[in-house]
Amino acid sequence: MSRRRARQNGGQEEYQVQGPSSALTSFLREQGISAEAIRQRYEAGLRRQQEQASSGEEVENGELEESDEEILEGEDIPEDVKLMRERARIKRRRARRDRELDDEEDEGKNFCIECDREFVISVYSKRMEKYGRIGYLCPECTSNEIKRQRMAKRNEIEARKRRKKVAAALLDKQEYRIPSLQDCCINVISKNIDQVDLLGDIGVVNMKKISRILSKNRSLDNRTMSLFLDSSMREIEFWDCSKIDSSAFDKIPAYCPNVERLVLNMCGRLHKDNLKYYGEKFTNLKYLYLNGAFLINDQAWQDFFDSPVGKNLKGIHIKNTHRFSPDSLISLLDNCGNNLEELTLSRLDGLTSKNVYDLLPHYLRKLKHLEISYPNKEELIDDELLINLLGVNGETLESLVLDGCTGLTDQFLISGVKPFCPALTKLSLVLLDQITDVGVKELFTDWDMNGGLMEVSLARCIELGDESVYALLEHSCQTLVELNLNSIKNLTRNFFKQIGRHLRFPLLTTLDIGFVRSCDDSALAMLSRVAPKLSVLEVYGNNRCTPAAIVRDNLKIIGRQSDRLDVGLQNESDELAVRLQLVQTACSEEMLAELVQQLVDARRGQLTIVFDMIDDVGEVSGVFLDKLKLEEKRPERNRAPNKLCFKMCK
Amino acid sequence: MTEEVSPYVTLISNDGFQFQISRDAAMVSGTLKGMLNTSFQESSTNTIRLHELDAVLLEKVCEYLYYNLKYKESVDVPEFDIPTEMALELLVAADFLDV
Description:
The complex is a heterodimer.
Chain A: H1 2-10, H2 23-30, H3 35-52, H4 59-65, H5 68-71, H6 79-106, E1 127-130, E2 133-136, H7 139-171, H8 181-191, H9 204-216, H10 222-226, E3 235-238, H11 246-255, E4 261-264, H12 272-281, E5 287-291, H13 298-306, H14 308-312, E6 315-319, H15 326-336, E7 342-346, H16 354-357, H17 360-363, E8 369-373, H18 383-393, E9 399-401, H19 410-420, E10 426-428, H20 437-444, E11 455-457, H21 466-476, E12 482-484, H22 493-502, E13 510-512, H23 521-530, E14 536-538, E15 556-558, E16 566-569, E17 575-580, H24 589-602, E18 606-611, H25 617-628, E19 631-632, E20 643-647
Parallel strand pairs in A: 3-4, 4-5, 5-6, 6-7, 7-8, 8-9, 9-10, 10-11, 11-12, 12-13, 13-14, 14-15, 17-18
Antiparallel strand pairs in A: 1-2, 16-17, 18-20, 19-20
Helix pairs in contact in A: 8-9, 11-12, 12-13, 13-15, 18-19, 19-20, 20-21, 21-22, 22-23, 24-25
Chain B: E1 8-12, E2 18-22, H1 23-26, H2 30-37, H3 41-45, E3 47-49, H4 55-71, H5 87-97
Parallel strand pairs in B: 1-3
Antiparallel strand pairs in B: 1-2
């Protein structure tokens, strides 16, 4: 329009007067349209009109509509006008080309980024970044991509569930397995135990299993208990008796008079009358385990030990009652002390007389198992008592548990255990903080009389160090099955190095090395190598143990902080999210870096790291940038203080 | 022993019902595996008579054998459905079959 008007204006004579130029004028000049050229063209047009007047009129209209190139095609025009037109044409062409390019690249209307097919973009087209470009997907690829992402999400949920179950099983020190048909049945039976009238011939093992499950569910009561009572039973164990009342306790000897081993755990409702009744009826009873029988008073204990049944006992395990007094113990020793093979006195706060404890060596002759743990006061159990006890019983003693007897020192090890205990296979000295590196080393150095221990716990013996533990391992490495070195914090890296070079553990299956901070990945690898049967290794609190440790497949490592990491694809933007559910102190920079390195190796693309419990990400981010040569990218929106975004520049 | 082994085995209940199941499924049971891997009659005929189990129980057992075979590797498994009234008998059978 404007052009036409300009042309019309150009036709008038007064336009030649130059004045201040308007925006339109300057625009026209820019476009290569000059009034002079237009005037000439107009005059030429007039001339032509006159020439053509004879031939025809029709050209006029079309001429006005068409672009100037076409109008003047094949016409004789001045050189400068031609040049001007040429320039304008180039300019227009360039502008058009630019516009086309813009269409293709910026809006991605035409071609699918995945299959490169032409398509019409709609609101449903998926925008994504791929092969270093940003673009849209055609409808087909979009639906494929959505499907793929849905699958990935489902797989991720599946994988997360799997990890969770595996981790839960790991904590129970088991491998996750599909439940056996027997377990399925036992679960159904346990759930519906109220409808069961008789268990029938399901086998002793299954019976025990059901009983244990019921105890664990706290659903063992008078009625369900009676299902397990059978006259043929030789062993009975009820691990939760808190719902069993006094009259039901009487049923046990009434239905099962042949029981030889009776275990009643949490038997707080066991009345003194029950114990009296047991004293008359359990004629075959040899071993009795009572935990938490605090209704039984001193007199009832004495009467029981005085009964024919009490005199017959070979093993007594009593735990967690304050009513077991010094007199009860004297009665016990008087009546069956000479026959006892097993004795447990654990957490008996009523036993406060040192003189009574000192009687033990005078009665006990042929103990195989002795446990005296967590006495009321530490001075009740001293080295002299132990040395005397071991002097008499050492020949037969196989198992010695002295957990929490903190009054004991090196002396009893050197003068008691070392010279008198050739048959000892189990030794537990949890919490003995007075035994030292020197004493324990002395015990195990050249202890040829003893053929080797199978089960050792030195947990929280915090004074021990490299030399003593190494001496123990050197002495017993061929026979050890279970070993607990929890919290022996003085162990150093050198200790692990020495083990790896000199010792082999053919039978070791479980090892707890928790809170021994020097234990690192290389120590794990070494342990995996030197202990081929090792199946459970606990490393709680060792933050140098990472998933990067190279260990056997069938070795379960429990307690690595990394086991709690929840790693996986987070959302559709194809980024990898790492959730670190760690306490700040436990999360070392190296550990994080190592973890991320693995992820980087596994995946390319963008990596988002969410630090759930770390306040200051700035500190750790530097580590990542250094170690991984990552280029940090923090998106402005969604900016959270605990979220870091990295772009990998591999 | 090099002769072709059939991929199926037949389990016969005490009331005469026959169940043909794949060898892999049968191998889930320790007892059946033992029977099929030795030179007993069962391994040559690929037929096992289970005198202790009736058809209802054996059907459930077969169901479990396939259930185990299918979900051995996965974690998110549906619960194996056992009718309450059958649980005790099935437990005895499972104890015998070592599954």
